[in-house]
Specification:
single chain, alpha/beta, Endonuclease, Chain A, Rossmann fold, 7-stranded mixed sheet, 6-stranded mixed sheet, about 45% helix, ATP binding, SNF2_N, Helicase_C-like, SNF2_RAD54_helicase_repair, Helicase
């Protein structure tokens, strides 16, 4: 019965677009390409009608922007499109008015015969227009009410019906091979259940099973997940219901490497299959319910016997029996082409025979209840939030997943075994490689980084093999003195990669120079030891930075040497593409800001520390000692002693002198202040590439730097010895003549220093002027460009140097004698002593003085090559004897040598950079030191000899402590007072010592480690009790996933997600239903600390919990791309952008073949609608294939790159790719082998979900 008409329609409210399929195709094309002129749609004049129809339905707005409703329709599953459009039409003005006019609630009830009457009464239309619009509405309603699914295609092209693909691949997108595919007539699905022509086996079987109290299912064990969901949702209220379930085998024979000889073997096979695959955490409540059903006898479970494998698929109910090929999976019931037969109970004979077959197979099965329970418990367990969090922490920290890359059986055979912190470090570094791409390993000196690094490289290599690389090109670059050590450690891993000295990189005439520079651009794995050697820009650094390795591994104990800006060089080595833009922005401020601004701005310091943590494995000596103390037996040395760092005792010795020498020192400092430093200038003045300031600023910096360097070298030489300063002024020969004429054999072949002669030779030779805007005559000082002024300035500098030389020879030798006396006393006390100075002449003079006092002394300056290093190891290495000896070492011996038989190091000159200070001490301060205490002696100079303007070492030490944790003076030292940069107080090394000693026993502070926040979740006063964590860590129970639910004020979720093949896990946090996901470990840890605690209440599994679990799993699915490393995210974003640009160009060029190829590729690689049960292309593999395509272009760009002020990322290739696109055949070949990936919910290791109290708004 019609209702009273309440609305009057205008012509604009009624559509006039003939075909809804064409409308959908045009809308899809427009939503993706912002272009209505779709290829294949030749009725250009009809496009306005279709656009207007989209507006009528609310799919686009008045400005032609696709609305939320339009996006939902475009993204809808093809099987749901008709239903979605029906709802959209019903909400339109036309649909609402028609439903109201006819007095019905559903468009399926509308009478198509009455459409013209409806229009005549509700719209003022002329006859022809009314007839035309009525025809359109009839067509629309017939199409909307058609039960067949909508199959999208090209607009304007006749739809050719195809079967749903068996799996996703590019083959699925090919057109049908026969022209008459659309003419196939499929049998009735009720007799032969199939998935063709819009039918599905699922609908038939589901109806039969729902209508029956007694059910027998015979399925393959791959059906487990869907079976659990089916059983949990089934009603068992009448008391008569019962389901019998028999799991048969799956046709995976090619994967079985051994013959199965007994019944337990199939149970093990089922278990292995599901433990490797995982199960969706959305079934946590379902598992509990199914367990109860089996326990109470409502469900009986059997398993096929090994002697009689079962491959049958039978669904027996009291109404009908279906048997055939369809397994009880989404693919078998809905997706794949399947062949089944169904016999209803009215076909008594066939039904009875099929029933007999099913019952006979059932009787041959064996009871599976206990093994079934064991499997369910292992797959997914409801736990307390503490246990779920403990499991999430262990997944990160213990690195069980890493065993597939570093075989544990191989590690277990090592003698001596790896230390626990080395195993842990390997796992953590592999986690960073998996989730970031490159890693900085900066554990303290003496912790065994080389051995750990060798196994890490082995793990990175094996990981690349598993990711599809045939044999990843690997390069290891080290300082020449440690090449043999690396080769020895790599032999142990059974992968003896070639180790390259970094020397040939800087020597273009070296025989291996061309080989190395060419290989660097093609490698997949790059490992650089002592990476601090590449902090300063040089040709050698540029050649290393030109790599685009998939994994870069940097090893250095001193990543920050002079200041936080050193991190910029490390980022270049790691590859800026591996770091998120937020990290690059924070680090980029170091380029633009002053040297100290980043240190003194607390907020910036905090952000900088957080960003460093993303790519670092950093354990200070205090932290490593804490690990060793917690597992003493694992650190037992062959001597019976437990490995740990010795107590580090920094002490200070006086270098006093008479007042006259102090006065001479002040005069020398004043003369040095007047030096112009002309000899420190280069031979040309030219703006560096990337300089972002003015030419005037560049000139000012050059002049100031030259002056500062000149003064620095004078005072540094003076602090070493009078002879060192005289050498600096007049040269080596003159210095020996003046201070040690009798040491003719010790002078060496090279005459260094001699700044007087240098100034005289340079006089009048102005640097080449390459500044473009700044004119020479406008520049001061004029000696930069005026030869005569330059000559006078050089003469003035030379005269100042002569005066300095005259003063230094008048000084007494009190300071030098004090140092020699200290060495004599330490020789008597310790026997074996290492003494370091940066000036060889000082060391030679000291050797002579010591020998004159009957002290055995040897000179270690790098001369003598490998033989000299072997002699040093024989005298001071672990196996050395106890013969007293003083080794006078230059800094060439501060790196790469283990001299821990000595227990005493003396700084004859005080280092000003962190690397030198740490490495000198690191020769004896090692975990396998035989000593309980090592003493590091620092010179205490008179005030006149101290740096007067800035205490560089203290500033740099405090910056390292703030950013990554320091080793020089213990990292837990929080008592050091703030040192203001304008402070002109001279260094008080005794004060530095007392602060370090007072802080020795404090708790270590985790600063520069990617996993510090995770470790902070475990222990006393933390969220996870140490005992619980230890029980989880050492448990032998197999548990794939666990879920905990807690009561909270608002909904939130914490998830731990395994990688591909359950690889390296990630932490994910959602702070609300619609909140953006958080992936940073530190931020997630902080969010958990804010929400969990002693008063947090666990909840039992319930429908309410399942609802929130499903919601947050869906959110995770939507965010899955963001789980990838940043480089791959950048690569995918670039791929999408350039593909859209290429498609747009193909449209303009009417290149239909390229448009087809690109459109199919884009739809395949980036599907708009993700279905929970359907595998999708592995985006990591998509990104990898894309990067391989781009490799030649990247190689070309980086090979010609010079020093820059900004980081280079993939985004810079977008413009060139639009100008020179990649050809379609190359794209098809690259992406045709991309594997499919199981849904992300099957890779969840642990989950905690916060459930708001009843009545609390759920849309927070």
């Amino acid at each position: 019965m019609r209702r009273r008409r309440t609305k009057q329609l205008s012509s604009d409210d009624i559509p006039q677009a003939n075909s809804l399929p064409r409308l959908m195709a045009l809308l899809r094309h427009y939503a993706r390409y912002n272009d209505w002129s779709a290829p294949g749609f030749h009725q250009i004049q009809a496009i306005p009608s279709y656009r207007k129809a989209c507006r009528i339905l609310g799919l686009i707005d008045d400005s032609d922007a696709v609305t939320a409703t339009g996006r939902n329709v475009v993204r809808a599953d093809p099987r749901e499109v008709r239903r979605e459009l029906s709802a959209v039409f019903a909400r339109s003005q036309c649909g609402q008015t028609w439903l109201e006019w006819q007095g019905v609630a559903d468009i399926r009830s509308l009478d198509l015969e009455q459409v013209e009457t409806f229009l005549s009464e509700c719209a003022a239309l002329s006859g022809p227009i009314r007839w035309r619009k009525a025809t359109v509405l009839r067509r629309w309603l017939k199409w909307l009410n058609d039960p067949a699914p909508f199959l999208p295609g090209t607009p304007g092209r006749k739809r050719v019906r195809q079967a749903d693909p068996a799996q996703l691949s590019l083959v699925d997108y090919a057109p049908p091979s026969t022209p008459d595919a659309a003419s196939v007539t499929w049998p009735h699905a009720a007799r032969f259940p199939h998935n063709e022509g819009g039918a599905s086996v699922d609908e038939i079987v589901k109806q039969d099973l729902a209508a029956s109290e007694q059910v027998l299912l015979i399925v393959g064990y791959a059906s487990l997940e869907r079976v659990i969901d089916f059983l949990a949702k089934r009603s068992f209220t009448s008391g008569e219901e019962k389901v019998r379930l028999l799991f048969g085998w799956e046709p995976f024979e090619s994967q079985r490497s051994v013959y199965r000889s007994h019944d337990q073997s199939i149970a093990d096979e089922v278990r292995d299959y599901w433990l490797s695959r995982g199960i969706s955490v959305t079934l946590s409540g379902a598992l509990i319910r199914v367990r109860e059903l089996v326990e109470h006898g409502k469900v009986e479970v059997r398993l096929a016997q090994a002697r009689r494998p079962v491959h049958a698929k039978i669904y027996l109910s009291q109404q009908a029996v279906t048997l055939g090929s369809s397994n009880f999976t989404a693919q078998g019931l809905k997706k794949q082409s399947e062949a089944n037969a169904r016999f209803g109970n009215q076909e008594k004979r066939r039904y009875r025979e099929a029933q007999q077959l099913a019952e006979g197979i059932w009787l041959q099965g064996r009871d599976y209840k206990d093994d079934f329970f064991s499997l369910l418990d292992a797959l997914l367990r409801q736990v307390t939030w503490q246990e779920a969090l403990a499991r999430g922490c262990a997944a990160i920290l213990e690195g069980e997943w890493a065993k597939k890359y570093v075989p544990p059986d191989l590690l277990d055979q090592l003698a001596p075994p790896l230390w626990p912190h080395q195993r842990q470090g390997i796992s953590q570094a592999l986690w960073i490689l998996e989730n970031v791409g490159s890693v900085l390993v900066s554990d303290a000196t003496g912790s065994g980084k080389t051995r750990m690094g060798a196994w890490l490289i082995r793990g990175a290599f094996d990981r690349q093999l598993r990711m599809g690389q045939s044999r990843p090109a690997t390069m290891i670059v080290t300082p020449p003195q440690v090449v043999e050590l690396w080769e020895k450690q790599l032999q142990e891993t059974a992968h003896p990669f070639q180790v390259h000295s970094h020397g040939p990189l800087s020597n273009s005439t070296a025989s291996r120079h061309a080989l190395l520079t060419t290989a660097i651009s093609d490698i997949e794995i790059l490992a650089v030891d002592e990476a601090h050697n590449f902090l300063n820009w040089s040709d050698r650094t540029r050649r290393i930075v030109s790599h685009y390795a998939d994994n870069a591994l940097l090893f250095t104990a001193t990543p920050i040497n002079k200041g936080a800006s050193d991190l910029l060089a490390l980022v270049e080595l790691l590859g800026a593409d591996n770091l998120p833009q937020s990290c690059l922005d924070v680090l980029g401020q170091l380029r633009r800001g002053t040297r100290d601004a980043s240190k003194r701005n607390p907020e910036h310091l905090k952000r900088l520390r957080e960003e460093i943590r993303r790519f670092s494995v950093r354990r200070t000596r205090a932290e490593l000692n804490a690990i060793a103390e917690s597992q003493i037996s694992a650190y037992r040395l062959p001597t019976g002693q437990s490995a740990c760092y010795p107590r580090h005792e920094p002490l200070y010795y006086s270098c006093d002198c008479r007042d006259s020498d102090s006065e001479f020192a002040r005069e020398i400092a004043n003369l040095a202040e007047r030096l112009k430093g002309i000899s420190r200038l280069g031979n040309r003045l030219e703006l560096p590439r990337g300089w972002d300031s003015t030419e005037e600023a560049y000139v000012r910096r050059v002049v100031a730097s030259a002056r500062a360097l000149a003064r620095y070298h004078v005072m540094k030489s003076l602090r070493s010895s009078s002879a060192a300063l005289f050498e600096h002024v007049h040269g080596t020969s003159a210095a020996f003549e003046k201070f040690a004429a009798h040491l003719t054999d010790s002078r060496g072949k090279t005459d260094t220093g001699n700044m007087v002669r240098r100034c005289e030779e340079l006089a009048g030779q102005v640097p080449e002027w390459r500044l473009k805007r700044l004119k020479t005559k406008a520049v001061e000082p004029s000696w930069l460009w005026n030869p005569e002024a330059h000559r006078r300035a050089c003469e003035e500098d030379a005269e100042l140097y002569r005066q300095i030389g005259q003063l230094v020879v008048r000084m007494q030798r009190d300071r030098e004698e004090a140092k020699i006396d200290r060495l004599v006393r330490l020789y008597a006390e310790h026997g074996q002593v290492l003494a370091f100075d940066s000036h060889v002449i000082t060391l030679k003079l000291f050797q002579n003085a010591l020998e004159s006092k009957m002290v055995r002394a040897t000179l270690l300056t790098g001369a003598g090559g490998k033989a000299a290093k072997r002699r040093a190891t024989q005298s001071f290495g672990l196996g050395a004897g106890s013969q007293p000896l003083v080794a006078l070492c230059s800094d060439a011996f501060s790196e790469g040598l283990n001299l821990q038989k000595a227990s005493c190091v003396v700084h004859l000159d005080a280092p000003t950079v962190i690397r030198t200070a740490e490495q000198r001490a690191g020769r004896v301060d090692r975990m396998d030191s035989p000593h309980k205490t090592v003493r590091i002696w620092w010179p205490k100079d008179p005030e006149a000899f101290m740096p007067q303007k800035r205490d560089l070492l203290r500033e740099r030490h405090e910056m390292v402590a703030d950013l990554i944790g320091a080793n020089l003076c213990l990292p837990e030292d929080e008592l050091q007072p703030e040192v203001h940069l304008q402070d002109t107080t001279p260094i008080d090394v005794r004060e530095l010592a007392s602060r370090a000693l007072a802080s020795r026993e404090q708790e270590p502070v985790e600063l520069g480690d990617a996993f510090g926040a995770v470790r902070g979740m475990v222990g006393r006063s933390s969220l996870v009790d140490s005992a619980l964590y230890e029980s989880i860590r050492t448990s032998q129970a197999e548990v794939v996933s666990c879920v905990g639910s807690v009561r909270s004020e608002e909904p939130w979720a914490f998830l731990v997600v395994g990688g591909r093949d359950r690889g390296a896990p990630r932490w994910v946090f959602f702070a609300g239903r619609d909140a953006e996901p958080i992936f940073d470990l530190g931020e997630v840890a902080q969010a958990l600390k804010q929400r969990l605690g002693p008063h947090t209440r666990d909840l039992d599994a319930s429908d309410e919990c399942e609802e929130f679990i499903r919601h947050f799993v869906e959110r995770l699915r939507q965010s899955e791309r963001r789980l990838l490393p940043v480089r791959r995210q950048r690569a995918l974003a670039l791929l999408e952008r350039v593909m859209d640009g290429w498609i747009s160009r193909a449209n303009k060029d009417v290149d239909l073949n390229r448009r087809r190829v690109l459109g199919e590729l884009r739809s395949h690689l980036f599907p708009e609608h993700l279905q929970p049960e359907v595998p999708t292309p592995d985006l990591r593999s998509v990104a990898d294939q894309w990067l391989r395509l781009l490799r030649p272009r990247i190689k070309q760009v980086l090979a010609h790159r010079t020093k820059r002020k900004s980081f280079w990322t993939l985004d810079a290739l977008e413009g060139p790719l639009m100008v020179e696109p990649i050809e379609s055949p190359d794209l098809e070949r690259a992406f045709s082998t991309v594997p499919l990936l199981q849904p992300v919910e099957q890779r969840i290791i642990a989950m905690i979900v916060g459930i708001p109290s009843p009545g609390v708004a759920r849309d927070r």
